[in-house]
Design goal:
The protein has helices at residues 3-15, 19-25, 30-38, 65-68, 78-86, 109-117, 147-153, 175-180, 183-196, 234-254, 276-290, 318-331, 364-376, 397-416, and strands at 75-76, 120-121, 135-140, 156-162, 207-210, 259-262, 299-300, 341-342, 345-347, 382-386. It is α/β, with parallel strands linked by helices. Strands 6-5-4-3-10-9 form a 6-stranded parallel beta sheet. Helix 5 packs antiparallel against helix 6 (109-117) and helix 12 (318-331) runs parallel beside helix 13. The longest helix is centred in the middle third of the chain and has 21 residues, at 234-254.
Length: 417
């Protein structure tokens, strides 16, 4: 017999014989009623959960649901019932006595009934409002292990980056394989991925970003429809778009409630100028959108990873680069003409091979500057990507968010003073 069944049988054995006694007790005699009236002016004791030793009984204490979550796991369940049964009959005159949920200095029927009547999941308190509200962390094929710490900072833990291999687009795939793979094969591969990632449930309604970078990166789409490009090949462009759409459709069917996005769509040119290279990129995004690549997508996620550090020539282009990426994202449309929500992707590190600062941590002040540019463009929700919870041997993403919040708070106080 299971532990839960044993607990429920034990609880019933204690509760049921006592119901008649409770019913009789609910009908006091005239004398008892008189006594009750005389004592109705007594003070209520504090409802704060504390050590009960040496205190008077508290018959008027109002039991709260959190009082009944004895193991503090966020749920009043069989485990809590078992704890009351194990202490049943104990006199709470010394030491901790959390199972005396009604504070009357004895673990008895009233405590058991209180736990049973509060059976279920506790309501989660809303996260505190901070200057990082609207920010999400987006890790690679995982959620953060520090939901509580992030929540205290106002940061959400409800965004997930899907590896390309999960949709039959691994790093080493050839162009021929990318085009030839069937929808059934993609679906089979993605279902295998979901089995290995139980946190990504079928009813998940947060952000999911599909990370397809091989053998074609979305930022290169324009090269296949630009007659001046050495890669000009309109037929291949059409095949690329259809291959992306096939993979998007598989993820959409498997996770119908999620908010879906594509990595790298768009990725602005790092120089932050509307040069020929940037115009070619934008043309590729627009033509792919016209061919339906965004029709099952919910969110445009401009990749706004900072590309330069303080000693690089183009370090001063971060603001223009950020604005350009957001404006491109805001301009894109589905085939029915509808616009999409824009939630940019930021990073904690510089990502740019030619940069002298490649993979270095970005200064907190530079991150705060970029956030101000994003918000000035009317965007209130955005994400920070990282591979996992660790930034290096001594710092985590939660640590970095804490530093960033401190910087944002300081700036807000300085402006307000």
């Amino acid at each position: 017999m299971s532990r839960s069944m044993t607990a429920m049988i034990a609880a019933s054995a204690i509760v049921l014989p006592s119901l008649s006694q409770l019913a009789v007790a609910a009908k006091p005699s005239a004398k008892a009623s008189s006594t009750s009236k005389q004592s109705s002016g007594s003070k209520k004791l504090s409802s704060k959960k504390v050590d009960n030793s040496g205190q008077q009984a508290a018959p008027s204490y109002q039991v709260q649901m959190e009082d009944c979550d004895l193991d503090t796991n966020g749920v009043v369940d069989v485990a809590d019932i078992v704890m009351v049964i194990e202490d049943f009959g104990s006199k709470c005159t010394s030491g901790d006595c959390s199972t005396d949920v009604n504070r009357d200095q004895v673990v008895d029927m009233n405590d058991l009934l209180a736990v049973l009547s509060n059976y279920g999941t506790l309501e989660v308190a809303p996260s505190p409002e901070t200057l990082l509200d609207g920010v999400r962390v987006c890790l690679q094929s995982r959620f953060s292990n520090n939901t509580a710490g992030l929540s205290d900072l106002g940061v959400g833990n409800d965004a997930w980056m899907v590896h390309g291999y999960a949709v039959s687009a691994p790093k080493n795939i050839t162009e021929e394989e990318f085009f030839a793979i069937s929808e059934d094969d993609i679906e089979r591969e993605f279902n295998k991925y979901l089995l290995r990632k139980p946190d990504l449930a079928a009813d998940y309604d947060g952000m999911v970003i599909i990370d397809i970078e091989s053998p074609f990166h979305p930022s290169d789409l324009g090269k296949y429809i630009n007659p001046d490009s050495s890669r000009y090949d309109p037929m291949k462009f059409e095949s690329i778009v259809q291959a992306f759409k096939l993979r998007i459709a598989v993820v959409r069917e498997a996770l119908p409630a999620c908010k879906l996005g594509i990595y790298g769509f768009p990725t602005p040119h790092s120089h932050g100028k509307p040069n020929n290279s940037e115009l070619q990129r934008v043309f590729g995004y627009e033509m792919a959108a016209a061919r339906g690549i965004l029709d099952q997508i919910d969110v445009i996620c401009p990749v706004l990873y900072q590309r330069f550090g303080p000693t690089d020539n183009h370090y001063n282009r971060i603001a223009s680069y950020t604005t350009m990426g957001i404006e491109t994202g805001q301009s894109l449309r589905r085939t029915d003409g509808s616009s999409l929500e824009v939630q940019p992707l930021m990073s904690f590190r510089v990502f740019n091979g030619p940069s002298a600062h490649h993979k270095e941590l970005i200064a907190v002040s530079d991150l705060a500057d970029q956030i101000e540019v994003i918000q000035a463009a009317g965007v209130e929700e955005f994400m920070f990507w990282n591979g996992d919870d660790e930034l290096d041997d001594s710092a985590t993403i939660t640590d970095r968010f804490a530093d960033l919040l401190e910087e944002l708070d300081y700036r807000a106080e300085t402006v307000g003073s």
